[in-house]
Structures are given as C-alpha cells and as structure tokens.
From TrEMBL:
The keyword Isomerase does not apply. This is ATP-binding protein. Belongs to the ABC transporter superfamily. Macrolide exporter (TC 3.A.1.122) family. It comes from Aminobacter aminovorans (Chelatobacter heintzii). PANTHER family: IMPORT ATP-BINDING PROTEIN (PTHR24220), LIPOPROTEIN-RELEASING SYSTEM ATP-BINDING PROTEIN LOLD (PTHR24220:SF689). Signal peptide: none annotated.
C-alpha cells in the first residue's frame, strides 16, 4: 500500500529579487497511523512545509503524492477536493468562524464536500463534539468557550469529513498546560485508536518525543530524523 504522504525533494522558493528558500529538498514518507512531529528553530520552514503538504501552497520543484496520487498535475478544483476529503487542519489559533456555533463550525467542511444529507451532517457534527467532551457546548459560539474548548472544536472540525490525515500547526501552542495535555491526548487517541496519521509542528520537544518520529528542520531542510 502506498504511503499517505510522500514527497521527493519538495522545494518552495519565493521568487523575490533575492530568492527566499522556505523549504528545500524535503523527501519524506508518512504512512498510516503515524504520529510525526516537525520541529526546528523559528523561521526554519515548519509552517511552510505543512502548507505544502496540505495543498495550501504549491512547490516550485519536487513532487508530492497524497494517497498515492501525484498532486502536481491537479487543478485547483481537484486540489480542493483532495484537501477536503484527505486532510483535516488544526492551527495554533483555532480559526473558528465567530458568528457560528460550535456545531455549525464542524458542519461547514461536510457541507462543502456534499457527501451527506443535512440531517446526517448535523448528527455527525454533534457526535464528534460529544466525543470530544463538548456535549454541553454544541450551540455556543467560539467567544463563549475557553481556549481549550475552542481547540477541541477545531479538532472536531478537522475530523468532519473523516480524513485519514490531520495536519496540525502548533495545535497546543496557545493553550495552558492542562488544556495542552488534553488536546495532545486527543490527538494521540486519534492515531492509536482511530488510525489517523498526524503531522504536527511543535516547539515542545517533550511532546515531540512522545510521537513516533520527529523531523527536525534547519533552513528549510531536514537536518535530522529522530525516532520517538
Ligand atoms: N511570504 C513570505 N515572504 C517572505 N518570507 C517569508 C514568507 N513566508 C515565510 N517567509 C520566511 O520563510 C521562513 C520560513 O517560515 P515559516 O513560517 O515556514 O517558519 P517556521 O519554522 O514555521 O517558523 P515559526 O516557528 O516562527 O512559526 C522564515 O524565515 C520566514 O520569515
């Protein structure tokens, strides 16, 4: 079976007067049920790599396959569909839509993919939020929730279309230590019990050591791969 994510010399250079190298020659392979950390100093290209893997940005050279499919020839519509069906995103700041309730925020990616009926979408959004301990908060808006609760809504939203891959950029970066541990354990559970693959950018080396593998970037390149 092909890996879920496979890159070959993935590179992103910004065409400025003095070109800026964000990601350089990154070759990696991420299989099912893997929990992978991406670490590195500030400005080393961690977020840029995650954006490339998430089809939110395009490489200037190199290849990226998602679920065995080369993403190079895909048009924007296909990229968007691949993103919606194959990946969920969790960012440091939750990016929930402020005017919508927790449940509506989780419903949005399902509405975009249009695989389920309205009533099924509503039911699934509720189930996801309940499974993340948010039963009492389904109808609250983000500003009525704590930081940890908001981040759990963001995790529920990332799971909406049941994607095999979750890409997380500092998912616990803005949380206190208790909420941070809670969100980490949820992510760990998703890998161990639900078979998801997670790539998470983190500054927290203790947390990274609890994952399966750590990819350490320096100046946009893989400097080291450390087993967890
Ligand atoms: N649009 C842009 N224009 C110019 N430089 C950019 C742009 N986007 C990113 N960079 C630069 O590219 C480098 C990599 O940025 P990136 O955000 O990927 O690093 P990072 O490792 O995630 O950093 P941090 O840990 O601080 O979030 C940085 O030096 C950044 O300043």
């Amino acid at each position: 079976m092909s890996p879920l994510i496979e890159t070959e010399r993935l590179t992103r250079i910004l065409p400025e007067t003095v070109p800026v190298t964000l990601v350089k020659d990154v070759t990696l392979s991420i299989g099912e049920k893997e929990f992978v950390a991406v670490t590195g100093p500030s400005g080393s290209g961690k977020s840029s790599l995650l954006y490339l893997l998430g089809l939110l940005d395009s490489p200037t050279s190199g290849t990226l396959k998602i679920g065995g499919r080369d993403t190079g020839p895909m048009d924007e519509k296909e990229r968007s569909r691949t993103r919606l069906s194959m990946m969920g995103f969790v960012f440091q700041f939750h990016f929930l839509l402020p005017e919508f309730t927790a449940r509506e925020n989780v419903e949005i990616p399902m509405r975009k993919l249009r695989r389920l009926e309205r009533s099924q979408i509503r039911e699934r959004a509720s189930e996801l939020l309940i499974s993340l301990g948010l039963a009492e908060h389904l109808d609250k808006r983000p500003d009525q929730l704590s930081g940890g609760q908001r981040q759990r809504v963001a995790v529920a939203r990332s799971l909406a279309n049941d994607p095999p891959i979750i890409l997380a950029d500092e998912p616990t970066g803005s949380l206190d230590s208790k909420s941070s541990e809670q969100v980490f354990e949820i992510l760990q559970h998703l890998v161990r019990e639900r078979g998801k693959s997670i790539v998470a950018v983190t500054h927290d080396l203790e947390m990274a050591a609890r994952m399966d593998r750590r990819i350490h970037l320096v100046d946009g390149k893989i400097a080291e791969v450390v087993p967890g």
